[in-house]
């Protein structure tokens, strides 16, 4: 018989076996499907987010190449800058106004106004260019979609219309009506008609209006937030500079194609990838458990094929072909389900990225390459795990089949080897962790720890079962505990998957609980005033005077802020009055003479994320030059005096490092005198006030002056509430994936219990023949398996704590620059254990009942055969 015929014969025999026992093939496919589903779901979400950073457009238009922004210290541009650009022949310009509006219920909404006619023309022009280049039907459909869905006639009639994505419109305005507070007459809400546009246009959670309506809603007449330009950056800059079109009223910023956002969000996406890989490993455990069970059930069949003359290497090839086919089928199903999972996860990710980083995600897309990558990764991992088992079975003696005792002793040897490998890996990680300075390295080491932890489990539970067996008196209970040791082998992989899921769940609960307490404590010290305001720059002095004349106002605090860069990364340069700086700076480290040196301009404060990201310490020099040079590209000098005549503190040293949570940009705080000496804007950007009485009274007084709107004021309680809600959202995606991983592990346990109870029908039948009732058999088997689950949970508690410690003190610290005090949440741990026991009880009880309700005498007859 030829080699090809032998392989084909073996595959036909395997197919016939699976027709007789579909549960075995189903268990393997289940693990592969679950693994690929979570892997593709997160990969699609991450890839789409990263693509959005470089391709995200101005709303209803294409991506801008340049932005014209207000001068430092100013919040808005005047419309005359935009008109000047258009009149000079720069037609690819788009005016944008953005701000917060309040609805009658007091909720704040981000509203963005755009010159919609210019936006539509720009998109239509770009679509026409793309169509002529690519002749793409989708491009033509998108062009038609824009023109048909946007109500041009109503916009021309200056009606009150808001544009939203269809999904957002269905959520906030299902009847097509939306109300926002009139910024002038607060008692008279403005009724707005909502037009839902196809989600494919990429509006996300944005609320869009024509610029005239947005200026009225935001009370910003003749003001713009920025102007987007769409053309070759170099030629635009030359044209604007030569004609002096900005007239020192604005700055030009060249877009970075999303690189800054990619840097800011890298750790966020890395966390998602880490969770997806964890779920992928759990799924592979389930698949491998199915493969091993199937091979154990086919052990006689494999020996018979070898005895019939099938060559060992041909049988090995047939087994590999079988696994490849199962991986192919499972990957295709998992790929489809993964794309559906991505559609479910994407809104959560979009909301988090928008709140934290101001990033807007484009509509999701997928690529066939992801399916190929998932197949290859799954096949590689499957072959790596299964080849030793294939080799062991194909090389077994043909004269006899391995006895049960031999199988158990082999498993014990395997478990001891696994335990030794795990201990060695953990020891190496413990040595390497103190030297890991980058979060990528720490995550890699933590991945080794995550893989090593489940390898400890089988031998640990085996030894505990041995110890418990000695304590039990002779009889059925002693038999039950003693037999538990034999169940550890078949259940070990399912328990490893459960341990991984429980460990990840406990560690994430530790991280989230610790972060919430740390954040609340930090906010208490950071928010020392009762009311915080960000009015228009031309109203700040008037508001200061008004507050100064109010007898109930006990303190007025100003803050000066400009956005800049340090080593090509966005940061904030901040200055406050000395009292506010002392009160609000929760210092992690400081020099002995900090405040005196700070006031003289020789020392500055930097946030912890900057210190960690760039490896800065107390006493290090910190050049202010990168900030001042990045403030403007106009010919107007930044400083009011020559550099040589300024204090030598232009190169100050770091005098203090303060805790800072949630700010995606690092902060540098300098003294007010130093701020003025280097010629930075004199007008503060925000004001805070302490008030003796109900703070809502002060809010109403300020609104009555018409100097500031409700949307520009935040009281202390609202800031705390929004901050905690926003940063819970940061971890919500990871917690969802964590829960999905736990569900995957529970499904794996169900699959393992179903296969195990089917395999144990003969031993149960013997006990039944000896006089035990079916109820006693069910109780005994249930207790055995629950005991193994309970021991797994007990192992998960310390391992989860270790993983939580590494997450808090290594990964989170290095990735985000946040020092978090680790706290133990015993209630959360007990809740996770209870959930695991309850889930496993269901996973055990159902297959146990199915199997034991059958006539057990048939099992003895089958064993005799």
TrEMBL record:
Pfam families found in the cross-reference section: FtsX
Domain ABC3 transporter permease C-terminal: 274-397, 737-852
Localization annotation: Cell membrane
Domain of life: Bacteria
Family annotation (InterPro entries): ABC3_permease_C (IPR003838), Lipoprotein-release_system (IPR051447)
Record keywords: Cell membrane, Membrane, Transmembrane, Transmembrane helix
Subcellular location, principal: membrane
Transmembrane spans: 21-42, 274-295, 315-339, 370-390, 417-436, 442-462, 487-508, 735-756, 787-808, 828-850
Membrane topology (UniProt): Multi-pass membrane protein
Family: Belongs to the ABC-4 integral membrane protein family. LolC/E subfamily.
Name assigned to this protein: FtsX-like permease family protein
Organism: Shewanella electrodiphila
Lineage: Bacteria, Pseudomonadati, Pseudomonadota, Gammaproteobacteria, Alteromonadales
């Amino acid at each position: 018989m030829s080699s090809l015929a032998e392989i084909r014969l073996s595959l036909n025999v395997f197919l016939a076996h699976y027709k007789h026992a579909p549960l075995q093939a189903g268990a393997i496919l289940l693990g592969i499907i679950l693994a690929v589903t979570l892997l593709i779901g997160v990969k699609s979400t991450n890839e789409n987010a990263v693509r959005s950073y470089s391709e995200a457009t101005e709303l209803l238009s294409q991506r801008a190449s340049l932005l014209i922004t207000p001068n430092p210290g100013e919040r808005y541009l005047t419309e005359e800058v935009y008109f000047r650009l258009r009149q000079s022949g720069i037609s690819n310009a788009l005016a944008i106004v953005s701000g917060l509006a309040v609805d009658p219920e007091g909720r704040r909404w981000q509203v963005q106004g755009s010159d919609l006619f210019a936006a539509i023309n720009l998109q239509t022009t770009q679509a026409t260019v793309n169509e002529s280049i690519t002749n793409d039907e989708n491009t033509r459909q998108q062009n038609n979609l824009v023109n048909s869905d946007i109500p041009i006639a109503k916009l021309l009639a200056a009606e009150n219309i808001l544009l939203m994505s269809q999904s957002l419109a269905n959520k906030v305005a299902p009847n097509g009506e939306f109300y926002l507070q009139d910024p002038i007459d607060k008692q008279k809400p403005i009724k707005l008609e909502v037009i839902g546009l196809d989600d494919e246009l990429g509006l996300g959670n944005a609320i869009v209006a024509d610029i005239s309506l947005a200026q009225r809603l935001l009370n910003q007449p003749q003001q713009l937030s920025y102007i987007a330009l769409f053309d070759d950056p170099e030629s635009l800059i030359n044209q604007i500079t030569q004609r002096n079109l900005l007239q020192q009223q604005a700055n030009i910023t060249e877009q970075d194609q999303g690189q800054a956002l990619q840097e800011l969000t890298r750790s966020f996406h890395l966390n998602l990838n880490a969770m997806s890989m964890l779920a992928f490993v759990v799924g592979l455990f389930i698949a491998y458990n199915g493969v091993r069970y199937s091979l154990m059930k086919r052990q006689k069949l494999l020996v018979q094929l070898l005895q019939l003359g099938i060559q060992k290497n041909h049988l090995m090839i047939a087994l590999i072909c079988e696994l490849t086919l199962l991986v192919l089928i499972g990957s295709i199903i998992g790929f489809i389900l993964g794309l559906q999972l991505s559609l479910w996860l994407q809104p959560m990710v979009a909301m988090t990225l928008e709140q934290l980083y101001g990033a807007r995600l484009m509509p999701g897309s997928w690529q066939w390459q992801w399916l190929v990558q998932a197949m290859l990764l799954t096949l590689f991992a499957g072959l790596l795990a299964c080849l030793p088992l294939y080799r062991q079975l194909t090389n077994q003696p043909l004269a006899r089949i391995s006895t049960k005792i031999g199988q158990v002793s082999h498993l014990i040897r395997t478990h001891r080897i696994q335990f030794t490998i795990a201990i060695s890996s953990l020891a190496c990680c413990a040595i390497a962790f103190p030297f890991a300075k980058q979060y990528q390295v720490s995550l890699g080491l933590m991945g080794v720890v995550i893989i090593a932890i489940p390898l400890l489990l089988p031998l640990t539970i085996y030894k505990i079962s041995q110890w418990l067996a000695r304590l039990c008196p002779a009889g059925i209970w002693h038999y039950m505990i003693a037999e538990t040791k034999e169940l550890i082998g078949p259940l070990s992989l399912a328990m490893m998957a459960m341990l991984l899921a429980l460990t990840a769940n406990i560690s994430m609960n530790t991280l989230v609980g610790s972060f919430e307490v740390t954040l609340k404590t930090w906010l208490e010290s950071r928010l020392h005033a009762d009311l915080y305001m960000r009015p228009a720059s031309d109203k700040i002095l008037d508001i200061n005077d008004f507050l100064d004349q109010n007898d109930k106002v006990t303190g007025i605090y100003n803050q000066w802020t400009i956005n800049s860069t340090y080593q090509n990364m966005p940061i904030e340069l901040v200055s406050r009055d000395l009292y506010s700086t002392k009160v609000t700076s929760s210092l992690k480290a400081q020099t002995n003479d900090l405040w005196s040196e700070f006031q003289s301009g020789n020392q500055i404060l930097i946030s912890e994320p900057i210190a960690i990201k760039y490896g800065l310490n107390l006493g290090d020099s910190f050049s202010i030059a990168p900030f001042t040079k990045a403030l403007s590209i106009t010919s107007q000098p930044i400083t009011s005096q020559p550099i040589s005549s300024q204090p030598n503190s232009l190169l100050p040293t770091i005098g203090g490092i303060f805790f800072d949570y949630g700010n995606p940009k690092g902060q540098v705080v300098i003294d007010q005198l130093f701020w003025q000496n280097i010629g930075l804007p004199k007008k503060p950007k925000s004001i805070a006030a302490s008030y003796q009485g109900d703070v809502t009274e002060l809010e109403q007084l300020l609104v009555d002056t018409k100097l500031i709107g409700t949307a520009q004021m935040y009281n202390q309680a609202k800031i705390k509430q929004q901050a905690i809600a926003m940063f819970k959202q940061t971890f919500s995606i990871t917690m969802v994936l964590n829960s999905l991983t736990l569900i995957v592990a529970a499904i794996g346990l169900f699959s393992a219990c179903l296969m195990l109870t089917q395999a144990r029908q003969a031993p149960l039948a013997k006990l039944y023949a000896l006089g035990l009732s079916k109820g006693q058999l069910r109780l005994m088997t249930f207790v055995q398996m629950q005991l193994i689950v309970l021991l797994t949970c007990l192992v998960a508690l310390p391992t989860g704590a270790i993983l939580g410690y590494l997450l808090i003190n290594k990964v989170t610290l290095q990735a985000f620059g946040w020092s978090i005090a680790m706290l133990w949440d015993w209630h959360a741990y007990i809740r996770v254990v209870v959930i695991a026991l309850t889930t496993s009880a269901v996973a055990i009880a159902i297959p146990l009942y199915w199997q034991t309700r059958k006539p057990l005498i048939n099992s003895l007859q089958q064993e005799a055969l």
